[in-house]
Amino acid sequence: MTHIEQADRPDRFSVVHRTVGGVRVVTVQGEIDHDVRELLSAALLSGYGAAPPSRVVVDLSGVTFMDSSGINVFVTAHQAVSATEGWLRIAAAQKPVLHVLQLVGIDALITCHPTVEQALEP
């Protein structure tokens, strides 16, 4: 398990990722904005050498705010894993974050699930 925090404000953003049945599960806490986009992108896609993981679930249950920076990271990650015939799924987004995802249509591109367990189902 790897834990990443924003160095200057660790109370504002943290990411923990682990592998469950060959799927990278990325649990995000705090706010997703311009300042943390590179940390989020790294948590979603790095750590496996040159190739990104092929299956990723992003647990947003601890995310209280997300702006367009998060949307851009998710679209980029979706494109990267789709290129390997994999998938990216979003799980447990709180209502304000889910509203942002729905407002911009990300939920039509990336499947959103109510729980991590449901997102991990084949």
Protein architecture, described:
The chain has 122 residues and is of the alpha/beta class. Strands 1-2-3-4-5-6 form a six-stranded mixed β-sheet, sandwiched between helices. α1 packs parallel to α2.
| Overall pLDDT level | 89
The number of E-state strands comes to 6
Q: Strand portion, in percent?
A: 25-35%
The biggest beta sheet reads: 6 strands, mixed
Based on CA inertia axes, which overall geometry fits? globular
Features:
122 residues; six-stranded mixed β-sheet; 5 helices; 34% helix
Brief synopsis:
The protein has 122 residues and is an alpha/beta fold.
Write the layout of secondary structure elements.
Elements: E1 2-5, E2 13-20, E3 23-32, H1 37-45, E4 55-66, H2 68-82, E5 87-91, H3 95-103, H4 106-109, E6 111-113, H5 116-120
Parallel strand pairs: 3-4, 4-5, 5-6
Antiparallel strand pairs: 1-2, 2-3
Helix pairs in contact: 1-2
